[in-house]
Design goal:
The complex is a heterodimer. Chain A is mainly alpha-helical. Chain A is built from 16 helices and no strands. Chain A is globular. Chain B has one helix and no strands. The radius of gyration of chain B is 14 Å and the shape is rod-shaped. Classes of the chains: A mainly alpha, B mainly alpha.
Chain lengths: ~525, ~30
Protein backbone atom coordinates (compact mmCIF):
# COMPACT_ATOMS: atom_id res chain seq x y z
CA UNK A 1 0.00 0.00 0.00
CA UNK A 2 2.79 2.37 0.91
CA UNK A 3 4.43 1.62 -2.44
CA UNK A 4 1.27 2.70 -4.20
CA UNK A 5 1.14 5.91 -2.22
CA UNK A 6 4.80 6.62 -2.94
CA UNK A 7 4.28 6.00 -6.66
CA UNK A 8 1.30 8.32 -6.65
CA UNK A 9 3.38 10.98 -4.97
CA UNK A 10 6.03 10.65 -7.68
CA UNK A 11 3.47 11.45 -10.33
CA UNK A 12 1.70 14.08 -8.34
CA UNK A 13 3.15 17.05 -10.17
CA UNK A 14 2.00 15.70 -13.51
CA UNK A 15 -1.61 15.39 -12.48
CA UNK A 16 -2.47 19.05 -12.51
CA UNK A 17 -2.88 19.97 -16.14
CA UNK A 18 -4.61 18.58 -19.18
CA UNK A 19 -2.86 16.33 -21.70
CA UNK A 20 -1.29 18.21 -24.60
CA UNK A 21 -2.80 18.49 -28.06
CA UNK A 22 -5.96 17.05 -29.53
CA UNK A 23 -5.56 13.80 -27.61
CA UNK A 24 -6.50 15.77 -24.48
CA UNK A 25 -10.09 15.83 -25.70
CA UNK A 26 -10.19 12.16 -26.63
CA UNK A 27 -8.82 10.70 -23.43
CA UNK A 28 -9.92 13.33 -20.92
CA UNK A 29 -11.55 12.27 -17.68
CA UNK A 30 -11.85 15.83 -16.37
CA UNK A 31 -15.41 16.93 -15.70
CA UNK A 32 -14.79 20.41 -17.14
CA UNK A 33 -13.30 19.05 -20.37
CA UNK A 34 -16.10 16.51 -20.78
CA UNK A 35 -18.67 19.21 -19.99
CA UNK A 36 -17.14 21.39 -22.71
CA UNK A 37 -17.20 18.48 -25.17
CA UNK A 38 -20.86 17.80 -24.43
CA UNK A 39 -21.79 21.48 -24.79
CA UNK A 40 -19.91 21.99 -28.05
CA UNK A 41 -21.30 18.76 -29.49
CA UNK A 42 -24.82 19.82 -28.46
CA UNK A 43 -24.31 23.24 -30.06
CA UNK A 44 -23.19 21.61 -33.31
CA UNK A 45 -26.20 19.27 -33.27
CA UNK A 46 -28.47 22.23 -32.50
CA UNK A 47 -27.43 23.67 -35.84
CA UNK A 48 -27.72 20.31 -37.64
CA UNK A 49 -31.24 19.81 -36.25
CA UNK A 50 -31.96 23.47 -36.93
CA UNK A 51 -30.97 23.07 -40.58
CA UNK A 52 -33.46 20.21 -40.85
CA UNK A 53 -36.11 22.51 -39.33
CA UNK A 54 -35.27 25.14 -41.95
CA UNK A 55 -35.80 22.54 -44.70
CA UNK A 56 -39.17 21.66 -43.17
CA UNK A 57 -40.24 25.31 -42.92
CA UNK A 58 -39.00 26.05 -46.46
CA UNK A 59 -41.10 23.22 -47.86
CA UNK A 60 -44.13 24.40 -45.87
CA UNK A 61 -43.65 28.04 -46.89
CA UNK A 62 -46.41 27.62 -49.47
CA UNK A 63 -48.76 24.82 -50.53
CA UNK A 64 -47.55 22.32 -53.10
CA UNK A 65 -44.23 20.50 -53.36
CA UNK A 66 -41.28 22.86 -53.76
CA UNK A 67 -37.90 21.58 -52.65
CA UNK A 68 -37.93 17.99 -51.37
CA UNK A 69 -39.85 14.79 -52.01
CA UNK A 70 -42.38 13.61 -49.39
CA UNK A 71 -40.19 10.71 -48.27
CA UNK A 72 -37.27 13.03 -47.53
CA UNK A 73 -39.60 15.54 -45.86
CA UNK A 74 -40.78 12.82 -43.49
CA UNK A 75 -37.18 11.84 -42.82
CA UNK A 76 -36.50 15.47 -41.96
CA UNK A 77 -39.31 15.67 -39.37
CA UNK A 78 -38.14 12.37 -37.86
CA UNK A 79 -34.45 13.21 -37.84
CA UNK A 80 -35.02 16.80 -36.67
CA UNK A 81 -36.79 15.45 -33.60
CA UNK A 82 -34.28 12.69 -32.86
CA UNK A 83 -31.26 14.97 -33.37
CA UNK A 84 -32.73 17.78 -31.27
CA UNK A 85 -33.84 15.48 -28.42
CA UNK A 86 -30.92 13.04 -28.26
CA UNK A 87 -28.18 15.11 -29.90
CA UNK A 88 -28.82 18.67 -28.73
CA UNK A 89 -31.06 19.24 -25.69
CA UNK A 90 -30.17 16.18 -23.59
CA UNK A 91 -26.40 16.40 -24.21
CA UNK A 92 -26.45 20.14 -23.53
CA UNK A 93 -27.95 19.52 -20.09
CA UNK A 94 -25.50 16.66 -19.45
CA UNK A 95 -22.74 19.11 -20.39
CA UNK A 96 -24.06 21.63 -17.88
CA UNK A 97 -24.31 18.85 -15.28
CA UNK A 98 -20.70 17.85 -15.91
CA UNK A 99 -19.41 21.38 -15.62
CA UNK A 100 -21.57 22.60 -12.77
CA UNK A 101 -22.56 19.75 -10.44
CA UNK A 102 -19.07 19.04 -9.05
CA UNK A 103 -18.43 22.78 -8.66
CA UNK A 104 -21.83 23.34 -7.04
CA UNK A 105 -21.51 20.56 -4.46
CA UNK A 106 -17.81 21.10 -3.75
CA UNK A 107 -16.58 17.86 -5.36
CA UNK A 108 -13.21 17.51 -7.14
CA UNK A 109 -14.71 15.75 -10.18
CA UNK A 110 -17.49 13.40 -11.22
CA UNK A 111 -17.59 10.12 -9.28
CA UNK A 112 -16.74 7.89 -12.25
CA UNK A 113 -14.52 9.92 -14.57
CA UNK A 114 -13.59 7.15 -17.03
CA UNK A 115 -17.21 6.19 -17.48
CA UNK A 116 -17.89 9.87 -18.02
CA UNK A 117 -15.52 9.90 -21.00
CA UNK A 118 -17.12 6.74 -22.35
CA UNK A 119 -20.66 8.18 -22.09
CA UNK A 120 -19.62 11.13 -24.21
CA UNK A 121 -17.95 9.14 -26.96
CA UNK A 122 -20.82 6.64 -27.09
CA UNK A 123 -23.12 9.63 -27.58
CA UNK A 124 -21.03 10.80 -30.53
CA UNK A 125 -21.02 7.29 -31.99
CA UNK A 126 -24.79 7.01 -31.54
CA UNK A 127 -25.60 10.35 -33.14
CA UNK A 128 -23.18 9.79 -36.05
CA UNK A 129 -24.72 6.37 -36.65
CA UNK A 130 -28.16 7.95 -36.62
CA UNK A 131 -27.05 10.67 -39.04
CA UNK A 132 -25.47 8.06 -41.33
CA UNK A 133 -28.93 6.56 -41.96
CA UNK A 134 -29.66 9.64 -44.12
CA UNK A 135 -27.26 8.21 -46.71
CA UNK A 136 -28.54 4.63 -46.68
CA UNK A 137 -30.64 2.86 -49.27
CA UNK A 138 -34.28 3.70 -48.59
CA UNK A 139 -33.36 6.82 -46.63
CA UNK A 140 -33.45 7.64 -42.94
CA UNK A 141 -36.39 6.57 -40.76
CA UNK A 142 -39.40 8.62 -41.83
CA UNK A 143 -42.20 7.41 -39.56
CA UNK A 144 -41.76 10.08 -36.88
CA UNK A 145 -39.44 10.08 -33.84
CA UNK A 146 -41.87 7.74 -32.06
CA UNK A 147 -40.87 4.96 -34.48
CA UNK A 148 -44.38 3.48 -34.45
CA UNK A 149 -44.87 0.08 -36.05
CA UNK A 150 -46.05 -1.01 -38.55
CA UNK A 151 -45.01 2.20 -40.38
CA UNK A 152 -41.42 2.23 -39.14
CA UNK A 153 -40.94 -1.38 -40.26
CA UNK A 154 -41.20 -0.09 -43.85
CA UNK A 155 -37.88 1.76 -43.34
CA UNK A 156 -35.21 0.55 -45.77
CA UNK A 157 -31.70 -0.51 -44.86
CA UNK A 158 -31.56 2.15 -42.14
CA UNK A 159 -33.81 0.47 -39.56
CA UNK A 160 -31.32 -1.77 -37.71
CA UNK A 161 -28.77 1.06 -37.71
CA UNK A 162 -31.29 3.50 -36.28
CA UNK A 163 -32.25 0.96 -33.61
CA UNK A 164 -28.61 0.31 -32.72
CA UNK A 165 -28.03 4.04 -32.47
CA UNK A 166 -30.95 4.29 -30.03
CA UNK A 167 -29.28 1.54 -27.98
CA UNK A 168 -26.00 3.46 -27.96
CA UNK A 169 -27.70 6.71 -26.99
CA UNK A 170 -29.59 4.88 -24.25
CA UNK A 171 -26.44 3.31 -22.83
CA UNK A 172 -24.72 6.69 -22.95
CA UNK A 173 -27.62 8.36 -21.11
CA UNK A 174 -27.80 5.64 -18.47
CA UNK A 175 -24.06 5.86 -17.82
CA UNK A 176 -24.31 9.64 -17.55
CA UNK A 177 -27.22 9.31 -15.14
CA UNK A 178 -25.39 6.77 -12.97
CA UNK A 179 -22.42 9.10 -12.82
CA UNK A 180 -24.57 12.04 -11.75
CA UNK A 181 -26.33 10.04 -9.02
CA UNK A 182 -23.08 8.60 -7.70
CA UNK A 183 -21.51 12.07 -7.69
CA UNK A 184 -24.39 13.71 -5.85
CA UNK A 185 -24.80 10.89 -3.33
CA UNK A 186 -21.15 10.29 -2.53
CA UNK A 187 -19.09 13.36 -3.39
CA UNK A 188 -20.77 16.31 -1.66
CA UNK A 189 -18.55 18.53 0.47
CA UNK A 190 -19.01 18.22 4.24
CA UNK A 191 -21.98 20.34 5.26
CA UNK A 192 -23.57 20.20 1.79
CA UNK A 193 -26.69 18.34 2.88
CA UNK A 194 -29.26 17.34 0.27
CA UNK A 195 -31.54 20.20 1.26
CA UNK A 196 -28.71 22.72 0.86
CA UNK A 197 -27.91 21.71 -2.73
CA UNK A 198 -28.60 24.27 -5.46
CA UNK A 199 -31.85 23.54 -7.34
CA UNK A 200 -29.94 22.67 -10.52
CA UNK A 201 -28.30 19.77 -8.67
CA UNK A 202 -31.63 18.63 -7.25
CA UNK A 203 -33.38 18.68 -10.60
CA UNK A 204 -30.55 16.70 -12.19
CA UNK A 205 -30.60 14.12 -9.38
CA UNK A 206 -34.29 13.50 -10.02
CA UNK A 207 -33.79 13.57 -13.80
CA UNK A 208 -31.02 10.98 -13.52
CA UNK A 209 -33.40 8.59 -11.77
CA UNK A 210 -35.95 9.19 -14.51
CA UNK A 211 -33.34 8.31 -17.14
CA UNK A 212 -32.37 5.07 -15.45
CA UNK A 213 -36.01 4.07 -15.24
CA UNK A 214 -37.01 4.91 -18.82
CA UNK A 215 -34.08 4.35 -21.18
CA UNK A 216 -34.13 0.54 -20.68
CA UNK A 217 -37.84 0.56 -21.54
CA UNK A 218 -37.17 2.37 -24.82
CA UNK A 219 -34.29 0.00 -25.52
CA UNK A 220 -36.67 -2.90 -24.91
CA UNK A 221 -39.28 -1.44 -27.26
CA UNK A 222 -36.86 -0.91 -30.15
CA UNK A 223 -35.29 -4.34 -29.59
CA UNK A 224 -38.75 -5.82 -30.06
CA UNK A 225 -39.07 -3.80 -33.28
CA UNK A 226 -35.80 -5.35 -34.38
CA UNK A 227 -36.93 -8.90 -33.66
CA UNK A 228 -40.30 -8.23 -35.33
CA UNK A 229 -38.49 -7.12 -38.46
CA UNK A 230 -35.69 -9.67 -38.64
CA UNK A 231 -36.45 -12.61 -36.35
CA UNK A 232 -40.09 -13.40 -37.14
CA UNK A 233 -41.52 -12.38 -33.80
CA UNK A 234 -44.85 -10.55 -33.75
CA UNK A 235 -44.87 -8.37 -30.66
CA UNK A 236 -46.51 -5.58 -32.61
CA UNK A 237 -47.96 -7.51 -35.53
CA UNK A 238 -51.68 -8.26 -35.27
CA UNK A 239 -51.37 -11.03 -37.89
CA UNK A 240 -49.17 -12.99 -35.49
CA UNK A 241 -51.22 -12.29 -32.37
CA UNK A 242 -49.37 -9.10 -31.41
CA UNK A 243 -50.66 -5.56 -31.06
CA UNK A 244 -49.21 -2.36 -32.52
CA UNK A 245 -50.87 -0.37 -29.72
CA UNK A 246 -48.63 -2.24 -27.26
CA UNK A 247 -45.66 -0.44 -28.84
CA UNK A 248 -47.36 2.89 -28.27
CA UNK A 249 -47.86 2.06 -24.59
CA UNK A 250 -44.24 1.01 -24.14
CA UNK A 251 -42.95 3.95 -26.16
CA UNK A 252 -44.91 6.55 -24.22
CA UNK A 253 -44.02 4.96 -20.89
CA UNK A 254 -40.55 6.07 -21.97
CA UNK A 255 -41.59 9.09 -24.02
CA UNK A 256 -43.54 11.02 -21.46
CA UNK A 257 -40.88 10.97 -18.71
CA UNK A 258 -38.39 11.71 -21.51
CA UNK A 259 -39.93 15.13 -22.05
CA UNK A 260 -39.44 15.77 -18.34
CA UNK A 261 -35.80 14.73 -18.74
CA UNK A 262 -35.56 17.79 -20.97
CA UNK A 263 -37.66 20.11 -18.83
CA UNK A 264 -36.60 19.34 -15.20
CA UNK A 265 -32.98 20.53 -15.65
CA UNK A 266 -34.50 23.52 -17.44
CA UNK A 267 -36.41 24.28 -14.24
CA UNK A 268 -33.19 23.82 -12.29
CA UNK A 269 -31.26 26.36 -14.35
CA UNK A 270 -34.13 28.87 -14.19
CA UNK A 271 -34.23 28.44 -10.40
CA UNK A 272 -30.50 29.13 -10.35
CA UNK A 273 -30.49 32.22 -12.57
CA UNK A 274 -33.62 34.09 -11.44
CA UNK A 275 -32.58 34.55 -7.76
CA UNK A 276 -29.18 35.97 -8.80
CA UNK A 277 -30.71 38.73 -10.95
CA UNK A 278 -33.63 39.33 -8.56
CA UNK A 279 -31.04 39.60 -5.75
CA UNK A 280 -33.23 37.50 -3.51
CA UNK A 281 -33.11 33.92 -2.28
CA UNK A 282 -35.20 31.47 -4.32
CA UNK A 283 -38.76 31.64 -3.04
CA UNK A 284 -39.97 28.30 -1.62
CA UNK A 285 -36.81 26.20 -2.03
CA UNK A 286 -38.20 23.08 -0.37
CA UNK A 287 -41.48 23.34 -2.28
CA UNK A 288 -39.40 23.50 -5.48
CA UNK A 289 -37.68 20.24 -4.51
CA UNK A 290 -40.95 18.51 -3.70
CA UNK A 291 -42.64 19.90 -6.81
CA UNK A 292 -39.80 18.52 -8.96
CA UNK A 293 -40.14 15.11 -7.33
CA UNK A 294 -43.93 15.23 -7.74
CA UNK A 295 -43.64 16.07 -11.45
CA UNK A 296 -41.17 13.20 -11.88
CA UNK A 297 -43.52 10.76 -10.14
CA UNK A 298 -46.56 11.92 -12.11
CA UNK A 299 -44.64 11.65 -15.38
CA UNK A 300 -44.72 7.85 -15.02
CA UNK A 301 -48.48 7.53 -14.70
CA UNK A 302 -49.81 9.74 -17.49
CA UNK A 303 -48.30 8.21 -20.64
CA UNK A 304 -51.50 7.21 -22.43
CA UNK A 305 -52.63 10.84 -22.79
CA UNK A 306 -50.55 10.65 -25.99
CA UNK A 307 -52.90 7.92 -27.22
CA UNK A 308 -56.42 9.14 -26.43
CA UNK A 309 -57.55 8.34 -29.98
CA UNK A 310 -56.39 4.69 -30.14
CA UNK A 311 -59.61 3.40 -28.64
CA UNK A 312 -58.95 3.02 -24.94
CA UNK A 313 -61.76 2.09 -22.54
CA UNK A 314 -63.50 5.20 -21.20
CA UNK A 315 -62.20 4.49 -17.69
CA UNK A 316 -58.65 4.57 -19.06
CA UNK A 317 -59.27 7.87 -20.83
CA UNK A 318 -60.73 9.39 -17.66
CA UNK A 319 -57.87 8.16 -15.50
CA UNK A 320 -55.17 9.46 -17.85
CA UNK A 321 -57.05 12.74 -18.26
CA UNK A 322 -57.27 13.45 -14.53
CA UNK A 323 -53.76 12.21 -13.79
CA UNK A 324 -52.40 14.51 -16.49
CA UNK A 325 -54.26 17.50 -15.09
CA UNK A 326 -52.59 16.85 -11.72
CA UNK A 327 -49.20 17.80 -13.23
CA UNK A 328 -50.42 21.38 -13.49
CA UNK A 329 -50.31 21.62 -9.67
CA UNK A 330 -46.59 21.12 -8.98
CA UNK A 331 -45.80 23.00 -12.21
CA UNK A 332 -47.96 25.87 -10.99
CA UNK A 333 -46.05 25.82 -7.70
CA UNK A 334 -42.85 26.33 -9.66
CA UNK A 335 -44.17 29.17 -11.82
CA UNK A 336 -45.54 30.82 -8.68
CA UNK A 337 -42.18 30.48 -6.94
CA UNK A 338 -40.22 32.00 -9.82
CA UNK A 339 -42.64 34.90 -9.93
CA UNK A 340 -42.51 35.33 -6.16
CA UNK A 341 -38.69 35.26 -6.31
CA UNK A 342 -38.82 38.25 -8.66
CA UNK A 343 -41.48 40.01 -6.59
CA UNK A 344 -39.98 43.15 -5.05
CA UNK A 345 -36.50 41.98 -6.03
CA UNK A 346 -33.83 44.49 -7.06
CA UNK A 347 -34.01 43.12 -10.58
CA UNK A 348 -31.62 43.78 -13.45
CA UNK A 349 -32.15 42.51 -16.94
CA UNK A 350 -28.93 41.05 -18.30
CA UNK A 351 -29.27 38.53 -21.11
CA UNK A 352 -29.49 35.40 -18.89
CA UNK A 353 -32.32 37.01 -16.91
CA UNK A 354 -34.15 38.09 -20.06
CA UNK A 355 -34.10 34.54 -21.41
CA UNK A 356 -35.22 33.23 -18.01
CA UNK A 357 -38.18 35.61 -17.77
CA UNK A 358 -39.20 34.75 -21.34
CA UNK A 359 -38.96 31.12 -20.30
CA UNK A 360 -41.36 31.60 -17.37
CA UNK A 361 -43.95 33.33 -19.56
CA UNK A 362 -43.68 31.19 -22.69
CA UNK A 363 -43.29 27.87 -20.90
CA UNK A 364 -46.49 28.67 -19.00
CA UNK A 365 -48.24 29.12 -22.35
CA UNK A 366 -46.92 25.76 -23.54
CA UNK A 367 -48.09 24.27 -20.24
CA UNK A 368 -51.57 25.67 -20.66
CA UNK A 369 -52.00 24.20 -24.14
CA UNK A 370 -50.86 20.92 -22.57
CA UNK A 371 -53.68 21.25 -20.10
CA UNK A 372 -56.11 21.81 -22.99
CA UNK A 373 -54.92 18.61 -24.61
CA UNK A 374 -55.24 16.63 -21.39
CA UNK A 375 -59.03 16.95 -21.77
CA UNK A 376 -59.67 13.70 -23.62
CA UNK A 377 -62.70 14.75 -25.71
CA UNK A 378 -60.98 17.97 -26.79
CA UNK A 379 -57.85 16.03 -27.65
CA UNK A 380 -59.77 14.20 -30.37
CA UNK A 381 -59.70 17.50 -32.24
CA UNK A 382 -56.09 18.39 -31.45
CA UNK A 383 -54.57 14.93 -31.92
CA UNK A 384 -51.90 14.73 -34.64
CA UNK A 385 -52.47 18.33 -35.71
CA UNK A 386 -50.21 21.37 -35.71
CA UNK A 387 -51.73 22.29 -32.34
CA UNK A 388 -49.61 19.51 -30.84
CA UNK A 389 -46.57 20.76 -32.74
CA UNK A 390 -47.17 24.27 -31.36
CA UNK A 391 -47.63 22.93 -27.82
CA UNK A 392 -44.48 20.88 -27.53
CA UNK A 393 -42.36 23.43 -29.35
CA UNK A 394 -43.46 26.03 -26.81
CA UNK A 395 -42.32 23.73 -24.01
CA UNK A 396 -39.04 22.91 -25.74
CA UNK A 397 -37.85 25.95 -27.67
CA UNK A 398 -38.73 29.05 -25.61
CA UNK A 399 -38.37 26.83 -22.53
CA UNK A 400 -35.51 24.29 -22.75
CA UNK A 401 -33.59 25.98 -25.57
CA UNK A 402 -34.04 29.49 -24.13
CA UNK A 403 -32.82 28.28 -20.75
CA UNK A 404 -29.83 26.60 -22.39
CA UNK A 405 -29.05 29.98 -23.98
CA UNK A 406 -29.54 31.64 -20.59
CA UNK A 407 -27.19 29.09 -19.03
CA UNK A 408 -24.63 29.83 -21.73
CA UNK A 409 -24.71 33.57 -21.04
CA UNK A 410 -24.82 32.97 -17.28
CA UNK A 411 -21.83 30.63 -17.01
CA UNK A 412 -19.72 31.47 -20.08
CA UNK A 413 -17.92 34.24 -18.13
CA UNK A 414 -17.22 31.72 -15.35
CA UNK A 415 -16.00 29.05 -17.80
CA UNK A 416 -13.84 31.32 -19.94
CA UNK A 417 -12.94 34.21 -17.63
CA UNK A 418 -14.18 36.61 -20.32
CA UNK A 419 -17.35 38.70 -20.51
CA UNK A 420 -19.63 38.25 -23.50
CA UNK A 421 -20.85 41.27 -25.46
CA UNK A 422 -24.04 42.29 -23.66
CA UNK A 423 -25.37 44.34 -26.62
CA UNK A 424 -25.21 41.38 -28.99
CA UNK A 425 -26.65 39.16 -26.26
CA UNK A 426 -29.65 41.46 -25.90
CA UNK A 427 -30.04 41.65 -29.68
CA UNK A 428 -29.98 37.84 -29.80
CA UNK A 429 -32.63 37.70 -27.08
CA UNK A 430 -35.05 40.17 -28.68
CA UNK A 431 -34.73 38.65 -32.14
CA UNK A 432 -35.27 35.18 -30.66
CA UNK A 433 -38.21 36.01 -28.44
CA UNK A 434 -40.11 37.83 -31.18
CA UNK A 435 -39.36 35.35 -33.97
CA UNK A 436 -40.05 32.26 -31.85
CA UNK A 437 -43.61 33.52 -31.33
CA UNK A 438 -44.04 34.34 -35.03
CA UNK A 439 -42.80 30.82 -35.69
CA UNK A 440 -44.91 28.80 -33.27
CA UNK A 441 -47.97 30.84 -32.29
CA UNK A 442 -49.68 30.59 -35.72
CA UNK A 443 -49.28 26.81 -35.53
CA UNK A 444 -52.00 26.82 -32.84
CA UNK A 445 -54.41 28.31 -35.38
CA UNK A 446 -53.32 25.85 -38.07
CA UNK A 447 -53.86 22.91 -35.75
CA UNK A 448 -57.27 24.07 -34.57
CA UNK A 449 -58.25 24.56 -38.22
CA UNK A 450 -57.30 20.94 -38.86
CA UNK A 451 -53.85 20.94 -40.44
CA UNK A 452 -52.26 17.54 -39.74
CA UNK A 453 -48.64 17.30 -38.60
CA UNK A 454 -45.89 15.50 -40.58
CA UNK A 455 -47.19 16.43 -44.04
CA UNK A 456 -45.13 18.11 -46.78
CA UNK A 457 -48.15 19.63 -48.56
CA UNK A 458 -51.41 21.08 -47.29
CA UNK A 459 -54.75 22.54 -48.30
CA UNK A 460 -54.67 26.17 -49.50
CA UNK A 461 -56.68 27.50 -46.55
CA UNK A 462 -53.59 26.93 -44.37
CA UNK A 463 -51.31 28.96 -46.65
CA UNK A 464 -51.21 32.32 -44.83
CA UNK A 465 -50.31 31.12 -41.34
CA UNK A 466 -47.78 28.65 -42.73
CA UNK A 467 -46.03 31.44 -44.58
CA UNK A 468 -45.93 33.59 -41.44
CA UNK A 469 -44.69 30.64 -39.39
CA UNK A 470 -41.92 29.95 -41.91
CA UNK A 471 -40.83 33.60 -41.91
CA UNK A 472 -40.61 33.44 -38.10
CA UNK A 473 -38.65 30.21 -38.44
CA UNK A 474 -36.09 31.71 -40.81
CA UNK A 475 -35.57 34.75 -38.55
CA UNK A 476 -35.28 32.50 -35.49
CA UNK A 477 -32.81 30.21 -37.26
CA UNK A 478 -30.68 33.11 -38.46
CA UNK A 479 -30.70 34.78 -35.01
CA UNK A 480 -29.11 31.71 -33.48
CA UNK A 481 -25.98 32.44 -35.51
CA UNK A 482 -25.56 35.42 -33.16
CA UNK A 483 -25.33 32.97 -30.26
CA UNK A 484 -22.69 30.97 -32.12
CA UNK A 485 -20.78 34.21 -32.73
CA UNK A 486 -21.02 35.19 -29.05
CA UNK A 487 -19.80 31.80 -27.85
CA UNK A 488 -16.77 31.90 -30.15
CA UNK A 489 -16.12 35.58 -29.40
CA UNK A 490 -16.32 35.05 -25.64
CA UNK A 491 -13.98 32.05 -25.74
CA UNK A 492 -11.52 34.19 -27.72
CA UNK A 493 -11.66 37.06 -25.20
CA UNK A 494 -15.10 38.65 -25.45
CA UNK A 495 -15.22 42.32 -24.56
CA UNK A 496 -11.73 42.11 -23.12
CA UNK A 497 -13.18 42.84 -19.68
CA UNK A 498 -11.73 40.47 -17.09
CA UNK A 499 -14.54 39.09 -15.00
CA UNK A 500 -14.38 38.68 -11.24
CA UNK A 501 -14.76 35.35 -9.45
CA UNK A 502 -18.37 36.17 -8.71
CA UNK A 503 -19.11 37.53 -12.22
CA UNK A 504 -22.62 38.57 -11.14
CA UNK A 505 -23.24 40.73 -8.07
CA UNK A 506 -23.38 38.63 -4.89
CA UNK A 507 -23.61 35.39 -6.90
CA UNK A 508 -21.33 33.64 -4.40
CA UNK A 509 -24.11 33.86 -1.83
CA UNK A 510 -26.14 31.54 -4.01
CA UNK A 511 -23.78 28.79 -5.11
CA UNK A 512 -20.24 27.48 -4.68
CA UNK A 513 -19.02 27.80 -8.27
CA UNK A 514 -18.85 31.59 -7.87
CA UNK A 515 -16.30 31.22 -5.04
CA UNK A 516 -13.82 29.77 -7.57
CA UNK A 517 -11.62 31.85 -9.88
CA UNK A 518 -12.89 32.68 -13.37
CA UNK A 519 -11.96 30.57 -15.29
CA UNK A 520 -11.71 27.86 -12.63
CA UNK A 521 -8.42 25.92 -12.54
CA UNK A 522 -8.31 22.48 -14.18
CA UNK A 523 -8.81 20.79 -10.82
CA UNK A 524 -11.11 22.41 -8.27
CA UNK A 525 -12.13 21.51 -4.73
CA UNK A 526 -9.36 18.95 -4.30
CA UNK A 527 -9.79 20.15 -0.73
CA UNK A 528 -13.49 20.36 0.08
CA UNK A 529 -14.84 23.87 0.75
CA UNK A 530 -15.72 24.66 4.34
CA UNK A 531 -18.40 27.36 3.90
CA UNK A 532 -21.59 26.30 2.14
CA UNK A 533 -23.66 29.14 0.61
CA UNK A 534 -27.24 28.97 1.79
CA UNK A 535 -28.74 32.11 0.24
CA UNK A 536 -30.55 29.99 -2.36
CA UNK A 537 -32.48 28.10 0.31
CA UNK B 1 -15.94 2.03 2.82
CA UNK B 2 -14.13 4.85 1.02
CA UNK B 3 -15.69 7.20 -1.54
CA UNK B 4 -14.29 5.30 -4.52
CA UNK B 5 -15.80 2.05 -3.30
CA UNK B 6 -19.09 3.84 -2.63
CA UNK B 7 -19.07 5.25 -6.18
CA UNK B 8 -18.54 1.83 -7.73
CA UNK B 9 -21.18 0.24 -5.50
CA UNK B 10 -23.67 2.98 -6.46
CA UNK B 11 -22.92 2.39 -10.15
CA UNK B 12 -23.34 -1.39 -9.82
CA UNK B 13 -26.68 -1.01 -8.02
CA UNK B 14 -27.97 1.45 -10.63
CA UNK B 15 -26.87 -0.75 -13.55
CA UNK B 16 -28.71 -3.63 -11.89
CA UNK B 17 -31.84 -1.48 -11.63
CA UNK B 18 -31.60 -0.57 -15.33
CA UNK B 19 -31.14 -4.21 -16.37
CA UNK B 20 -34.09 -5.31 -14.22
CA UNK B 21 -36.32 -2.67 -15.83
CA UNK B 22 -35.18 -3.74 -19.32
CA UNK B 23 -35.89 -7.41 -18.61
CA UNK B 24 -39.21 -6.55 -16.96
CA UNK B 25 -40.32 -4.46 -19.97
CA UNK B 26 -39.53 -7.27 -22.41
CA UNK B 27 -41.10 -9.99 -20.24
CA UNK B 28 -44.28 -7.94 -19.87
CA UNK B 29 -44.44 -7.54 -23.63
CA UNK B 30 -43.78 -11.24 -24.29
CA UNK B 31 -46.53 -12.24 -21.89
CA UNK B 32 -49.14 -10.06 -23.60
Amino acid sequence: MSAVVAEHDDHHEHDHGPAKGLLRWVITTNHKDIGTLYLLFALAMFFVGGTMAMIIRAELFEPGMQFVNPQFFNSMTTMHALVMVFGAVMPAFVGLANWMIPMMIGAPDMALPRMNNMSFWLLVAGVLLLASTLFMEGGAPAGGWTLYPPLVLQTGKALPFAIFSVHLLGISSIMGAINIIATIFNMRAPGMTLMKMPMFVWTWLITAFLLIAIMPVFAGAVTMLLTDKFFHTSFFDAAGGGDPVLYQHIFWFFGHPEVYVMILPTFGVASTIIPVFARKPLFGYSSMVYATAAIAFLSFIVWAHHMFTVGMPIAGELYFMYATMLIAIPTGVKVFNWTATMWKGAMTFETPMLFSIAFVVLFTMGGFTGLMMSVAPSDFQYHDTYFIVAHFHYTLVPASVFILMAAGYFWLPKWTGHMYDERIGQLHFWLSVVSVNILFFPQHFLGLAGMPRRIPDYAVQFADWNMISSIGGFIFGASQLLFLYIVIDTIKGGTGEKVTDEVWEDAAKHSLEWTLPSPPPYHTFTTPPTVIPTEHI
Amino acid sequence: MNTKQKNILTAVVLVAVAVIIYVFAVIRAVSQ
